Amino acid sequence: MLLINVLVAFFPTRVKFKIVPSYTIGCGKRLVRGLLIPMGETNPNELSFLPKALSKTFRIMSFEISSENLNLPLHAYNSARRQYNSTILLEYLAITKPRGYEKYLGIVDADLYAGELNFVFGEATLNGDSAIISLYRLRPEFYSSSADEELFRARVLKEAVHELGHTFGLTHCRNPECVMHFSNSIMDTDLKSAEPCSACQVKLFRRL
Question: Residue 163 catalytic?
């Protein structure tokens, strides 16, 4: 899917990352390492809860947060739409990510779109190692509501689990309460759980 040979010409500079401590739940198996990468103007402090929260779902995974933000590529921005193309950002992440991790989640605080869709909360490479989510439309303030950190964190966790689930081969689920259900709107995100349904859990743990 990714035209790596072409893209390397656009992004020749290697990016250095510093890593902050990780969280995991012990289970006696080899840990799968995941890296959360803030991109653009994303505030890493807003993500501090995420490694531990993600490890409760992906129980043999250890998550870390990069302490250095990855710049957003200018050519991913569509000035007419005032949005970034999530597919281009995903491709960019795929060739700039550091080595040593099995899964990568880029986190941006900008509005995203893909294809003909008006917006997307995120995108992932199915059965791959990279995914991306946007915080932009997960904030209650976007919908003219008061700031609510608990609600914001719940939404971030759901979208992070959803996109990482795709990297493990999970597809969209028909169960509206399953985290793998597709969100057409923020109401869909609020309705669903932060966990896979029983059927999706079986698929996930087979892959883990």
Answer: yes
